[in-house]
Amino acid sequence: MKGKSREEKKFWKVGLTEKNRMISLFVIIIIIAFVATGCDNESPETSDIHVTVVDNEAFPLDESDFADAKSIGEVYRDIYDEAAKTNRLGSLETKQRIVVRLGENGYVAVDSENQVDMAGAEQVAEFCKAVDEKKNDRLTIIVIMELGFRKFDLETEGGNVNIVRGYYQYDQNGCLQNRNTVSYPADLWQYTEEGYLIFEGRYFSDENFVLTLSDTPEHTALRVLPLDKKCRELNRKYILPVGYEQNNIFLMDWKEEDFGDLDFYDIFDNFYPLLYKQSVPYIADNNLGIGAVYQIPEDVFENVIMAYFNIDREMLRSKTTYMPEDAAYEYRPRGFYEVEYPDIPYPEVVSYTENQDGTITLIINAVYPNENTSKLYSHKTVIRPLNEERFQYVSNQIISPEDDYDTWWHSSRLTEDEWKEIYGGNE
C-alpha cells in the first residue's frame, strides 16, 4: 500500500486556482513553522516529548526505551561533543565515525542520508530473511542525524512487521530529549535489488490531521549493501551538489552536440554559488505580484555557464534572451508560480567507467524514499575533469526506463507568454 498518491501530491503545483495557490502557500508556511518549532535547540515541553502514538491512541513513553536511547547516545558521546565544539556535527567524517563506533558496539547503524556504509548490515539481512520465512524476530536500527538519531525497533511475526520509531535529539545543554515516538505496522516492506530496505506506514498525528484530514505517512529508505568508495566520491564531487532540484541537467537527454532543452538560467542559479562562493544576488521580489527582471552582464553569466559546459557564446545566446545593445542577458528569477515539490529524489552513483579520452561515465540511480523506490529511473552522465577542481558536464542520457519515467516534482520556468499573463507590466 502506498501513501498519498502522486496525483494528490501534484495538486499544489499544477492546475491550481489563484485562491488555492494562496491556501497552499499558507499551509506550507504552517508546516514549516511547526517543523521548525519541533526541531530547534530549545528543550520541548514535557507533554511534547513523553508521548508515544500507538493505534491512534496516546500512551506514556516507555522509560526503559528512553533509557536504551540514552545508552546508545553514550556510546558515541565523545565523538558528538568533539564535533559540537568544532562545528562539525553535520560533516560526513563525524557521521562515519559515529556509525563505525555504533557498529563496533553491536548496533545496526547508518546515516540519515545514506552516505555512509551501514554497520551491522548482516543483522538486517537476517531480519529480512525472518520476515520472508514468517518467523519471529526483532531488530533495532539507529539512523544518525546531525543533532541526534532515529531509533527503529522492528518486530516481525507471521510475515508482518511492526515499527516503533523514536526521534531523539540533543538540546542546547547537550541533554538527549525524546522529540516523539510513534508506532505503526509496515504497510509496505521490501528489500530492493539495489540493496535498500524500504518500508512505509501511517500513524495518527493531531497536528497533521488538522492540515490533511488523514493519518501521517512515514517513508523510510535505508541502504543496506555497501557502495563502492569511488562511486561515493564521484557522486559527492560531480552529482550531489546539483542533484534534481530546480534544474533539468539530469532529467533529460542532451549532449554537447545538441543541448536540447537544457535550462541555462537554472544552471546559472545552481553554479553561480559554486563558482563565486556566494549566493546569487539576482533574487525574486518580496511582493509575489511583481515579477523581477534583471540584466546580468555577459561576462558574469557566460563565466558561470562556460565553467561547467563546453558551449560557445553564439549557442548560449541563442538559447537565452541576450541583449547585444546592453551586452547583458535578461534574467527572471524563479517566483512563486515556479516552485517545485519540496521532497525530491537524490542521486546515487552506482558504477563508473574511466574513458580513454579522459572523461568519466557515471551510472546514476535516482533514489526516491517518498515514492518507496531505490531506482525511480537511471541515467548515464559523462563528466570531463579539467584539473583538481574544475570539470565540465559532457552529456546526460536516461537509460531506464526508456520512455516511462516521471519527473513530476520538477517545474519548468514560466514561458515569456505565461510570465506576461501572470505579472503583466509589473517589472
Protein model, in words:
The structure is a single chain. This protein is α+β, with helices and mostly antiparallel strands. It has a domain at 39-226. 31% of the residues lie in helices and 28% in strands. It has 13 helices and 18 strands. The chain has helices at 6-10, 18-38, 46-49, 63-75, 77-85, 92-104, 121-132, 206-212, 229-239, 264-276, 298-308, 313-318, 416-423, and strands at residues 51-54, 57-60, 108-111, 137-145, 148-157, 160-170, 176-185, 188-191, 196-203, 216-223, 254-255, 294-297, 322-323, 328-331, 346-354, 360-367, 378-385, 391-400. The strands form 4 sheets. It has a 7-stranded mixed β-sheet, with helices on both faces. It has a 5-stranded antiparallel β-sheet with strand order 11-18-17-16-15. It has a 3-stranded antiparallel β-sheet with strand order 8-9-10, with no helix packed on it. The longest helix has 21 residues, at 18-38. It is elongated, with a radius of gyration of 24 Å.
Average of pLDDT: 86
Number of helices: 13
Largest sheet: 7 strands, mixed
The 3D shape can be described as elongated
Total number of beta strands: 18
Strand content is: 25-35%
Distance between the termini: 48 Å
Low-confidence stretches: 1-5, 8-60
